Amino acid sequence: MAKIRRKISLKNSKVTIGALLIYFGIGVLFLLIIGQFTKLMIFQTIDDEDLIARGEDKYAVSSINEPERGEILDREGNILAADMEAYRIAIITDENYPNHVSNPEETAALLSEVVDMDKAEIQKKIEENIKKGRFQMELGQAGRNISYNDKKFLEESEATGIVFESETRRFYPNGQFASHLIGFAELNDELGGLNGQLGFERIYNDLLKGEPGSVDYSQDVWGYIVPNSDNVKPPVNGNDVKLTIDPNIQLYLEDTLNDMDDHFEPEELIAVVADAKTGEILASGQRPSFNPETREGFGNSWLNMLYEYSFEPGSTFKVFGLAAAIEEGAYDPDTVYTSGSMDVMDSTIYDWETEGWGDITYNEGMQYSSNVLMMILQDKVGADKMLQYYKDFGFGQTTGSEFPTEVTGQMAWDNELQQKTTSFGQTSTVTPIQLIQGMTALLNEGEMKKPYVVDEITDDSGEVVYDGKEETVRQVISKDAAEKTMAEMNTLIDGSLDHNPQYKSDEYEVTGKSGTAQIYDPETGGYLDGDYQFFTSFLGYAPKEDPEVIVYYGIKLASENKSETWDNGVARGFNPLMERTLKYLEVSEADVSGDQSVVEIGDYRGREIDALTDELNDTIDVKIVGNGTEITEHFPQDDTLLPYDSLFVKTDGDPTLPDFKGLSKREALMLADFIGINITVEGEGYVDGQSQNAGTAVTEDTAVEITLSSNDPND
């Protein structure tokens, strides 16, 4: 069989080496695409970037819903601090933008009427920004917290280039009013929103600020919301904090502080009003102080003097040593001792009257405020036991108040000299809140009440999350000892020696203990020795037989009318504050002299109005509704009234408006209800004006605007 051989020729083949390289390159590229796609499917990343997260960032939208900050309220529910819408000013300085500043001088002039900056300063800043080619500028803190009315004023002007950004500010409607208690909050760009900086605004910041909410959703490439992609978390508004502060009493307190500050120009002032039975703080204030609304005065004093200020109290401290001595049976008011001086260690300690008053009784020694008597009583009780009594009264430790920065004061007890000087209120230090707390033990049968200033805290739904209430700290002394201590204290004003008569009241029996303490000089390590360089104070209560109110008042280093602080103490501030407070609280011991006692009110219907007004005690304020002569109705009826109370009477004539002047807010509202008219009340205190005159005819549409002031017209 023959073999056939064939030759294969490549002469006609179209595949070249270049083509093979192209095919090879395409294959490699395809493999790379497959590899990258596989990696994408498995790891869902490119160049270590998470594509899912990138897609979510691009199409997911999230926004924050800010909560409303809780309000701070007084005991009546009136707002002391609340959120308010405000505006921030921005000024467009780019000439290429349609709404830009066209006349810097005109714009600066208008802005200077709204913000706390000079026209020239504003104009200079605007012109500098225009020169530098900047788009816009702001005015810093001066351009924030712009009110709606100021915004409206600027918008209605012809100025160009002014734009506004809405923001929330904190509003303090009463200005300088318990400022160190309330504190203030301001916008903090780093923390976001309003944040408390001082006082309860800071202490309860976490409760007041609430929790922000959010809105999350996804959108497609055209910007539409993807169905069922939204997630809404509503904000939780802040809690409301209600204080025990009474707005009227606080107003009286601030008025007296202003008067004392103007008259004496002292380094410091402190005043506190407390409920003697419960320990509630009804009012508290100090000077220097500040206006949280305007920040005027801010920085003059950071301390809340009620809780954070410790000082040597002087003779107000003696009542606690007196109570301990009575409890231990070491005090007999009729025992006689020799006043004047006592040698202690290497020193001689004198009474404030260095020669003393000769041989006097213990009770006379208390009336004279004898230092020697207090040292004798301490020796009788024993130093260690006396220290324990002071601790039981709460000195040297905090009261456990709502203020976490409350200081303890210091009981100086290292040697006999410190112990002896402590007995009359020198060397050792206390705080005003400790003095208030200690006094409650003396006035409540030995049971010491814990002072408190937060009435309640409620959440956004109105549920009470904290309830402030009366709390007994401990039984410090026996009921019998407390009653005997009060009996001795009740002789300290208007007693047999008529000592400290400046604190007497014509309408109430007021008593308490005065104090004049030397002031420590850190430069010398001793005490200031200039004329009238003292801390002068009074720790008083009323009525003295059944105390309702404790008032503590102190002044440090008067620079004007100095001698008055020695001659009259703090009577200029204490007396009107105590009397106005008792009148406002309608305490039933007005004018104890006997000729102005309780007035019996019967049924006077059908009687002549002139005969009634002649018959009634002239301290009863009769408010007559109508122009007739015969009484048709009155309130109250078959009851009793106290001096300075009001009797509302209707006559048979056409109804007319009475004169509201002199009524308290509560009485004004009662009278309006008695007449059957609507009234609106502005201010606090007593009525000093009404929108329609007395004698104006009353119709079913009658509405009257009443204005109040802090000044009691009966004063």
Automatic annotation (TrEMBL):
**Record-linked InterPro entries:** Beta-lactam/transpept (IPR050515), Beta-lactam/transpept-like (IPR012338), PASTA_dom (IPR005543), PBP_dimer (IPR005311), PBP_dimer_sf (IPR036138), PCN-bd_Tpept (IPR001460)
Q: Which UniProt keywords apply?
A: Hydrolase, Membrane, Transmembrane, Transmembrane helix
Outline the extent of the PASTA domain.
654-710
Q: What class of enzyme is it?
A: hydrolase
Show the GO cellular component annotation of the record: plasma membrane
What's the EC number here?
3.4.-.-
Q: Where are the transmembrane segments?
A: 20-38
Family from the record: Belongs to the transpeptidase family.
The identity of this protein, by name, is Penicillin-binding protein 1
Native organism: Jeotgalicoccus coquinae
